[in-house]
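Posting for a labmate who doesn't have an account.
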Amino acid sequence: MTGFEITGASAADMQLIRDWADEEGWNPGDSDRFAFAVADPEGFLVGRLDGDPVACISAVRYGAGFGFIGFYIARPAVRGQGYGIRLWHAGMERLDGRLVGLDGVVDQQGNYRKSGFRWAWNNFRYEGAPQGEDGAGVEIVDAGTLPFGLLAAYDRRFFPASRDAFLSAWTGLPGRTALAAVRDGRIEGLGVIRPSSAAHRIGPLYAATPAVAEALLRRLARHAPDGLVSVDVPDANPSAAALFEDLGLAPTFETARMYTGSAPELALNELFGVTSLELG
C-alpha cells in the first residue's frame, strides 16, 4: 500500500468520479455532482496512488442517524490489489453509528452482505419512450412555483432523513425539469428529469396513484430527446413495474437497496422511481 492515500474529493475529482460512473454504464446525470456536493461536501473520498486518483466512494451523512454509500469504484488497473477495500472501510468509518443504505450492483451484493448489509428491495432500471395516449384529470405544475417547505415535507415520506439542501439543488439545477401533481392544494406527485449521457434520467418519481405517476412520466418525457427516459423502479411497489411495462419501457439494469439494519418505513406504495442510486 506504499504511495496510497485517501483524501476528500475536489471539484475536479467530482467530475472525474462522474466520468468513471459513466464508464461503468451507470449513466449518471450530467449535473448531479453539483447537488451531491451540497448534500455533504466532505462525503466524497478519493484513493490516490502516487498522487493519481484510482478509486472513489461516497459516504454521505444525512441528519444525525442516516448515511448512504455510493460511487464505489476502483479503476480496472488496480482492482484486486486492496485499494478499493481500504476506501470502503474509510467510507464506512465515516458513517459509523448510523443506519447506512446503498444501491448495490448484482456482482457486489454478496460482499455487501458480508459487511452487514441486508436486502430491502430490488431496483430495475426501465428505459424507453412511453407509449400510448396521455391520460387526463391530473393537474401538473412547475415544482419551483410551490413553497419549498411543501416539497421538502413531501420528500420526507420517501427518504429516512431531511435533505433540504440536496433537494433544493436537485430540483432547481439548470437543464432539468421538476414537476409536481397537485390536488386541492396538496402535493400528490413529484418528478424530476435531468440530462445524462444516454437516456434522460427521471428520479425521483413519487405519486399517489399509478395514474398520477403516468401523467408525470409523460410530461417529463417531453423534455427528453425522442422521449427516451430511464427510471430506477423499486419492486417494493408492484404497481410501478406493471405501469412501466404497460407503457412499453423495458428493464435494462438491476441493483438492490440494502441497509445495515432494519429498512426505514417509507411510502413505498407511492415510490415509482428512486431519486439517485448514488445518494438514495
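Reply:
Got it, the C-alpha cells are right above this. The mean pLDDT is 95.
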